[in-house]
Design goal:
By secondary structure, the chain is an alpha+beta fold.
Length: 735
């Protein structure tokens, strides 16, 4: 009995020790094994230690993240995170390892500025289902500079931030304005962050030009998102030392595939060609697919200036009028680009695939290749879909391979579809600009047999490489896509039942195949757009992780990004691991090195990917607004793409989205019904629902904010629509 009491006493002591550790401000979330090593738990005590952790989990005193790391339950203690401000005075705090953001009410922000690193205390009570918190301490200011429009007020000026999350102007003394005048787009460095009675203060460090000058709008986005334009001297010096041709020493020891018929297939304007494909069918009917990826890691050594710059950038950024590359052009368009007719180094994934789409054998190898032809998606489409006689003659030696590729692509797609891979087919567009950056046209990106073919082959290679390294149990970076949040899926399920659809749930979870079936059932129905959008919104964002947790959208267990090392850092990173493994150099010290390095690489790459997407979306929005500025008064057909308490968003066939403010909805007072995604008239019973087709008139454009405003045309305008409908409709449909 005494021994039992002593055991209980020790058990409680260990629980207290673990809680104190996790409550410490310097504690870094750890997995069970790491905790055991840190606390010097002997092998004999591991079972007991596990029992202590399980007891604390059961009591709710600690939590375990999806990565298997243990954290305190935060009950009553302070947390650290990033403050995201809102123009209306409240904000949110993103906390590492916590699924939902914390809501910070107005008056409890503690003077925190957008992107500040802050310490918060949890508050009793919640706003809806979101935990509330108060900022108790600002640890570090995250916004050092911002971009905005200068407004001269005589002896001083103000900068109105472009970022709408920042709800206050920045005061600029005249002597710190660099001579800026009203309407100038400027970069301002913050010298004071202000308080309850003072605005933030700053000094102008760069004048980008007048807001209406060509190129200034995009450059404002570039500076606003902190996108690095120029490469430093060290980086450029290293790039200059990279050879322009493959050397004999580089070819040594590699599999020679220069006699294998292969092509690159890309857009007409692509210059950084990082993937080539080859295919032949043997006498037994097996397909031998080769996906050959530029061996960038041969020229970008780990820890070099080039490598650190690539990691810093994370990805190439494709803006509407320019590309901001991850690597200098000498590499991305030169030795690393798989250009036609020249030797290039590659990492090849050589797959043998049967008639059912099963990969029966594969090999990953360092190779030297020589691309026969640089093909465009358009030319391959002309061969396979249009059967254009002239194009077929021009590429007659390659036509049999293209036809076999189309067969294999269809097989792989059917196999992926069968397992439940989800394919959203929302319209994407390309904005055509003149030499001054003025938008001339908005054209749809065409998905055709050629684009789908390359997509299918890249997916097959990415899955094969990920699966291979998963079973080797080596450190790796995976591309993962978590299952949707059960609450969102339950909400989607309840909503679609109103239309007579249902999705089969296992508990509160859904298999991707169920969502795929739903998308198939709603195809070509009136509610297709509505339900497709809601299905997409119910899903999470894909990211890079060191844990292989699967890819929900692709319905696969193993997935990575292997195929674009010129423009994505995770691909470059795993190429190094692949080559070290192939050469037998992944000894314990290197394995430990990657274990330590990869979490940071994965986290930063995910963050930089989001920054690039946000910047790309912002520049598209600005140019689309500029395009619609010349179409004020014109009438178009569109689809309601969003409903909020302040208005209804409508998307046109050319992907331009505009808002009808709630005050511009005619004939009634309208209330927002969040549950049914609709705006309902109080007296008339008229509703505006997500996915509903709607005729709109362009009312106004705020070019600076990139916002298009629509209105419902009155009957006279709608009646005279025939007069300009042909022009307007042709404009949209031709894009």
């Amino acid at each position: 009995m005494a021994a039992e009491r002593e055991h209980d006493k020790q058990f409680e002591k260990r629980k207290k020790l673990i809680c104190e550790l996790m409550d410490d401000a310097l504690y870094v979330p750890m997995k069970e094994k790491e905790l055991a090593v840190f606390l010097q738990v002997s092998a004999e005590e591991r079972d007991e230690f596990r029992a202590v952790l399980q007891a604390l989990l059961a009591e709710g005193r600690i939590e375990v993240t999806k990565r298997g790391r243990y954290i305190g339950s935060h009950g009553g203690r302070q947390l650290t995170g990033t403050f995201i401000s809102h123009a209306k005075g409240f904000g949110f705090v993103e906390v590492e390892g916590r699924e939902d953001d914390l809501y910070v009410p107005e008056g409890r922000t503690g003077g925190a500025f957008h992107m500040d690193r802050v310490q918060v205390a949890l508050l009793p009570g919640q706003r809806g289902k979101r935990q509330e918190a108060a900022v108790v301490r600002i640890l570090e200011h995250g916004t050092k500079t911002l971009v905005g429009t200068y407004d001269n007020a005589g002896n001083f000026g103000f900068v109105i931030p472009d970022n709408t999350k920042i709800g206050t102007d920045v005061f600029v003394p005249k002597e710190r304005s660099m001579g800026a005048v009203s309407g100038h787009k400027v970069v301002v460095e913050l010298t004071s962050y202000g308080d309850d009675s003072h605005r933030p203060e700053g000094r102008v460090t760069e004048i980008l030009g007048h807001a209406n000058d060509p190129g200034v709008d995009v450059m404002s986005v570039v500076r606003g998102f902190g996108l690095p334009m120029e490469f430093g001297e060290k980086v450029m010096n290293q790039a200059q030392r990279v050879p322009e041709e493959v050397t004999e020493a580089d070819r040594a020891g590699r599999m020679d595939l220069r006699d294998l018929q292969m092509v690159t297939i890309d857009g007409e304007d692509a210059k950084d060609l990082d993937d080539a494909v080859s295919l032949y069918v043997d006498d037994g009917g097996l397909y031998h697919l080769g996906v050959h990826i530029a061996d960038v890691s041969n020229y970008v050594q780990e820890n070099s200036a080039l490598d650190w710059e690539a990691l810093e950038r994370g990805t190439s950024v494709y803006l509407v009028d320019r590309v901001i590359p991850m690597l200098p052009h000498r590499l991305s368009n030169g030795i690393c680009s798989l250009n036609q007719g020249v030797d290039r180094l590659a990492l090849s994934c050589l797959m043998t695939i049967d008639a059912k789409g099963e990969i029966t054998d594969y090999q990953i190898a360092e190779t030297v290749i020589c691309v026969d032809r640089r093909m465009s998606y358009t030319a391959v489409k002309k061969i396979l879909e249009d059967r254009d006689a002239e194009t077929v003659r021009e590429y007659e030696t390659l036509v049999p391979m293209f036809e076999q590729m189309a067969q294999l692509s269809a097989i792989l797609r059917r196999k992926r579809h069968k397992r439940g891979s989800i394919d959203f087919d929302f319209a994407e567009s390309k904005i055509i600009l003149d030499e001054n950056g003025k938008p001339l046209d908005i054209r749809p990106y065409e998905r055709n047999v050629a684009t789908r073919m390359i997509e299918d082959f890249m997916l097959a290679a990415n899955e094969t490489v990920a699966q291979h390294f998963y079973w080797l149990e080596l450190p790796f970076i995976y591309r993962t896509h978590e299952k949707p949040d059960p609450e969102k899926i339950m909400k989607l399920s309840a909503f679609i039942s109103n239309f007579g659809y249902h999705i089969k749930l296992t508990g509160e979870e859904v298999h991707p195949k169920e969502l795929q079936k739903l998308l198939n059932r709603i195809a070509d129905t009136e509610e297709e757009t509505l339900i497709s959008r809601l299905t997409l919104r119910s899903m999470k964002q894909a990211k890079y992780t060191v844990d292989c947790t699967g890819h929900f959208g692709l319905a696969c267990r193993y997935y990575c990004h292997f195929t674009s090392p010129i423009r994505r850092y995770p691909d470059l990173q795993i190429h190094r691991i692949i080559k070290e493994q192939l050469r037998g150099r992944l000894r314990e010290n290197r394995i430990e090195h990657y274990r330590n390095r990869l979490p940071e690489v994965a986290g930063r790459s995910s963050k930089m990917e989001r920054r690039a997407e946000d910047a790309e979306r912002e520049t598209d929005r600005l140019k689309k607004a500029q395009y619609m500025e010349e179409r004020i008064g014109q009438i178009f057909d569109g689809v309601i793409s969003g409903v909020t308490q302040w208005g209804v968003y409508v998307e046109l066939p050319n992907t331009v989205e505009g808002m009808i403010h709630v005050s511009d909805l005619p004939g009634d007072y309208y209330d927002y019904d969040e549950a049914s995604y609709e705006m309902a008239g109080r007296d008339s019973g008229r509703t505006y629902k997500l996915g509903q087709r709607l005729t709109v008139q362009v009312k106004d454009v705020d070019r600076a904010a990139g916002t298009v405003y629509f209105a419902i045309p009155d009957e006279d305008d709608a009646g005279s629509r025939e007069g300009n409908h042909d022009e307007g409709s042709h404009e949209i449909s031709s894009q």
